[in-house]
Amino acid sequence: MKAIQDYYAEKYSHCYGCGRNNPQGHHLKSYPDGEQTIARFTVPEQYTGGVPEHVYGGMVASLLDCHGTASAAYFAAQNEGLSLDEELGRCRFVTASLKVDFLQPTPIATELVIRASLRAVEGRKVQLEMTMSAAGSITAKAEMLAVRLQN
Question: For residue 124, what is the domain's CATH number?
Answer without folding.
Answer: 3.10.129.10
